[in-house]
Amino acid sequence: MKSKLNITIDEDILNQMKRHAIQQNKSISQIVEHYFRGILKPNPKGGFVEMIDQLPKSKTSGSINLKEEYYEGKAEKYGL
Predict the structure, then answer these.
(1) pLDDT value at residue 43
(2) Contacts for 4-13: CB closer than 8 Å, 24+ residues apart
(3) Given a cut of 80, is residue 22 above it in pLDDT?
(4) Cβ atoms of 31 and 19 closer than 8 Å
(5) Arithmetic mean of pLDDT over the chain
(6) Contacts of 30 (CB under 8 A, 6+ apart)
(7) How far is 68 from 52, CA to CA, in rounded Å?
(8) Global pTM?
(9) Which of 3, 16, 21, 34 is least enclosed by beta carbons within 10 angstroms?
């Protein structure tokens, strides 16, 4: 079920949002609802660091110097 929401907003912002909504082929209501849903979406457990820790580990051997590999690849690509 949908409900109406009355808000007060700066006229310049409203005009910009109208243009943006037209460009996105959406209504301002759809944009606001999408924004609200994003705010209310539950955060994953933990923060950014914990999320990074959950990523699969690299399968490269520990003996590879990634910094050296990076610069060698750049040198090869750009002829340095």
Answers:
(1) 67
(2) 5/32
(3) yes
(4) no
(5) 87
(6) 21
(7) 23
(8) 0.51
(9) 3
Predicted confidence (pLDDT) per residue in 43-53, tens digit: 666 777 877 87
> Residue 32: what are its φ and ψ, rounded to 5°?
-65, -45
**Measured between alpha carbons, how far is 33 from 39 in angstroms, rounded to an integer?**
10
* Residues whose CB falls within 8 Å of the CB of residue 26, separated by 6 or more in sequence, listed in order: none
**Contacts of 44 by beta carbon, 8 Å cutoff, 6+ apart:** 50, 51
Rounded Cα gap, residues 68 and 22, in angstroms: 49
- Integer angstrom CA distances of residue 73 from 40, 65, 78: 44, 12, 9
Residue 27: per-residue pLDDT: 95
Quick one: CA dihedral 33, 34, 39, 44, positive or negative? positive
pLDDT in tens, 1-20: 999 999 999 999 999 999 99
